[in-house]
Structure prediction request, 510 residues.
Amino acid sequence: MKAEVVSMTADNLDMEAIRRGGDILKQGGLVAFPTETVYGLGGDALNPQASMKIYAAKGRPSDNPLIVHIAEFDKLAPIVAEVPEKAKILAEKYWPGPLTMILPKSDLVPQETTGGLDSVAVRFPSDRIAQELIKAAGGYVAAPSANTSGRPSPTTAQHVEEDLGEAIEMIIDGGQVGIGLESTIVDFTEDVPVVLRPGYISLEMLQETLGDVRMDKGLIAADSKVRPKAPGMKYRHYAPKAKLTIVEGSLKEEVFAIRQLAYEKSRQGVQVGIIGTNETVEFYTHGLVKNIGSRENEKTIARNLYRILREFDEEDVSEIYSESFAIQGIGNAIMNRLEKAAGHCRIPASVLTKEQKYRKIVFVSNTDTCRGPVAAEIFRHQSLDQEYWIESKGMVVLFPEPVNQKAEAILKSNQMTLEGYTSRPFTEKNLNPETLILTMAQAQKEKILSEYPSEYTDNVYTLTEFTGETEEIPDPYGQPLTAYGECYEKITLLIEKLAEILNSFTKGGQ
Ligand code: AMP
Ligand code: MG
Prediction:
């Protein structure tokens, strides 16, 4: 069977197609349709065979109950045993909308639909196409997300076709959904209402309306032994094929850490994916970067999450790193889905200490003709546990000049040379998370800090300061060769200390 795909919009409903969809449902068939949250896989909620078909089409465990969708308020009473006062208040405030309520069920609802439970999950969606289809089907449509169990929920009709195109009769294409995450589920079977699944309607919004509302303990303590009350929340849903890891810290730390992880994995030949945001994507230079939306408007992130996870399944990546989001409002729902997709695999950004991120060392002097290039050359001759890109730059370089002859003479007497090297100017590009900037004197450090108000200037140190010394490196300019010799000795001591410090970082010390 290949599903018939019909397209329509909420403003331009194809009522004839909706009637046909309604007939398919009434006869026990399956129709996928858009809702404001995600696409649903509809079957007649009062027909046990239709519910069984839904489980089979999705490959869903049959202990995972379905949500019954209604499209008129007076359809609620017949399927529930009672409606607590607080549930009435919520229905009035948020229905139609992305809110599901768990209520004690009436005999009208078959056990197959509720996965054997005595309660039923009910939602009144706001999407017009969904509403018309539900009415055309007789008023009660059981509809889980229209994806194969374990894949990200569908936010477009194409996603539904990918997963279920061969398994169902009809797909109604109403374009990309508005919210992109499944409904908030609130349980009313106990004294205090409990959120079993966070969604667009946040805990804060519910508390404002009802007062005391709690989060299901099984959701908060992801790795604890407490079972989530919604059977569906215990499964590792929404899993992408690649291993997804959430990196947690301040945004700046997260970007640093993900950059570093991507860099290291790429060097090992591992294809890496990165989930970044409007605010951060430009900082990633390795890996396949996808922009999930704007932190300024987290609704965009919710809307794009499942699409991006699906897109990564099409790509040849085996590791995905994601930034994390604040756990409040819709961010709570975003993190809940992201953590499930990651199988709760999270790492603190701080495991990569600042020092372990350095890949480049830039030695900065005034003219880049003496102390800076000499320090770089001595550093190149150290035995280092890790490969660094080593450079020197000058704060005042108007045109390329060769290295000072006395400095070169001292180097030569120590079996080194900078023959052919010409001076280069320091630029803003040298300021980045991977680069450690070491200036020869305090003056150059101050100049960088005042001239480049960049977020990366905290990688700028004087060489003396970084190595824990106090005495500044002398400037031999205009003095006899012996002064250059003394300067060389001083720099050598500092560079040996520098190598020791950097080697201790890569060993995981400090
Ligand atoms: P989905 O159909 O994919 O949106 O998932 C429906 C979610 O609602 C699953 O996590 C179910 O476990 C949950 N659910 C449905 N009915 C009940 C119920 N009666 N009690 C608790 N959770 C329910
Ligand atoms: Mg689902």
About this structure: The CA atoms of residues 226 and 363 lie 55 Å apart. Residues 64-67, 102, 114, 117, 119-121, 144-145, 182, 185, 196-197, 229-233 surround adenosine monophosphate (ligand 1) (CB under 6 Å). DSSP finds 15 helices and 20 strands in the chain. The chain has a mean pLDDT of 92.
